[in-house]
Design goal:
Distance between the termini: 75 Å
Structural class: alpha/beta
Shape: globular
Low-confidence stretches: 1-24
Largest sheet: 6 strands, mixed
Radius of gyration: 23 Å
Number of domains: 2
Number of strands: 11
Strand order of the largest sheet: 2-1-3-10-4-11
Strand content: 15-25%
Number of helices: 14
Mean pLDDT: 91
């Protein structure tokens, strides 16, 4: 009886192994004959596009079958067009993924305008980086701390009403009591920083620290700006003495509102696929992504582009998104109001 039982167990184990090998083989054969399209929600040359092209260059070698990764730009509505398209009309076989803005995952919670996707149902692949943004003021503006921005109005350059450069100062005004005055009309980050340098505004309230380091390193070395506060779920290692906005909240509810809004910083450059991707192909994409972000060549190329690699797995993004969507309705309503500056 023991011999028969052992034989049966051996047969079962062999069958399980064969099934696993077959599943892996099917993934490999699929990707050998099928390129992967990477839909980028921004125009060529934008930060998300540049980082995505680095991903496209390195990701394929870690996917079974080593498929070619083809970048397809689909700009519009702050990358909302791209995620709507992939979610509703995109391929669900694992041959298409999307790169879009960090705030898109929370968009349905905070502003449903134009939203045609469910963030909790996206198949999250991973994020290449977390992000810390800063509120900065030109050295001659008279603003040295956040207390100064609470005491009197401080003008900040803004690229658009739905951009972080607008959302963050509105949130800080509502939750922390600052008096940021939004000056709109700047096409992008380069123009906003130029406005600060020219004295058109006192500062800016939404530039990432990594971008600032790459574009305006002399501003720090020559002490041309003051850093008032940093915006993220944790401090950047480079900025131990700059206060974190979360730590300035006067009560637990205010801190939770800030956490809900600033959670986007934790998944700064997210990648996802449409719902319904076969489990084995999704696992292969996630495994490949996790290996890619540890690749020395990928990291070196990212550094040359001025990007930091501080990755987050697809599983962790999925968990975070579900936690955020399980927030109490009253908290979500407060966060919505803060984003709109009310």
């Amino acid at each position: 009886m023991k011999t028969c039982a052992s034989f049966a167990l051996a047969i079962s184990a062999l069958a399980a192994f064969a099934g696993s090998a077959k599943a892996q083989g099917s993934v490999e054969s699929f990707y050998k004959s099928q390129p992967v399209t990477l839909v980028v929600g921004y125009s060529p040359g934008a930060a998300y596009d540049l980082f995505a092209r680095n991903v496209a260059q390195h990701l394929g070698k870690y996917i079974p079958g080593e498929p070619k990764i083809i970048v397809q730009n689909m700009p519009g509505a702050g990358s909302l067009n791209a995620v709507n398209y992939v979610y509703q009309l995109g391929r669900k076989d694992g041959s298409q993924i999307a790169a879009f803005a960090r705030g898109i995952a929370m968009q349905p919670l905070l502003d449903e305008t134009g939203v045609k996707f469910d963030a909790t149902k996206l198949e999250w692949i991973g994020s290449t980086s977390s992000e810390v943004s800063v509120v900065l003021a030109w050295h001659g503006s008279g603003f040295k701390t956040l207390a100064d921005a609470k005491a009197r109005p401080m003008s900040v350059a803004v690229s658009g009403s739905g951009a972080d450069s607008a959302i963050f100062p509105r949130v800080l005004n509502t939750v922390l009591g600052t008096k940021f005055k939004l000056v709109t009309g700047y096409p992008g980050n380069s123009e906003m920083l130029l406005a600060v340098e020219r004295g058109e505004t006192d500062g800016n309230a939404g530039t990432s620290w990594a971008t600032l380091q790459g574009a305006k390193r002399d501003w720090m070395t020559e002490k041309k700006i003051n850093l008032l506060v940093q915006l993220g779920l944790k401090k950047h290692p480079d900025l131990p003495d700059v206060p974190l906005a979360l730590d300035l909240a006067s009560n637990a509810d205010d801190r939770k509102v800030l956490e809900l809004i600033l959670s986007r910083q934790q998944m700064a450059y997210p990648y996802a696929a449409a719902p319904g991707v076969p489990a084995d192909r999704l696992a292969a994409l996630r495994t490949a992504f996790d290996a890619m972000v540890k690749d020395k060549d990928f990291v070196a190329d990212a550094k040359k582009q001025g990007f930091e690699v501080d990755a987050m797995t697809g599983n962790d993004i999925g968990k975070l998104v579900k936690e955020l969507y399980a927030s109490p309705p009253a908290l979500i309503e407060r966060a919505r109001a803060a984003v709109n500056g009310s």
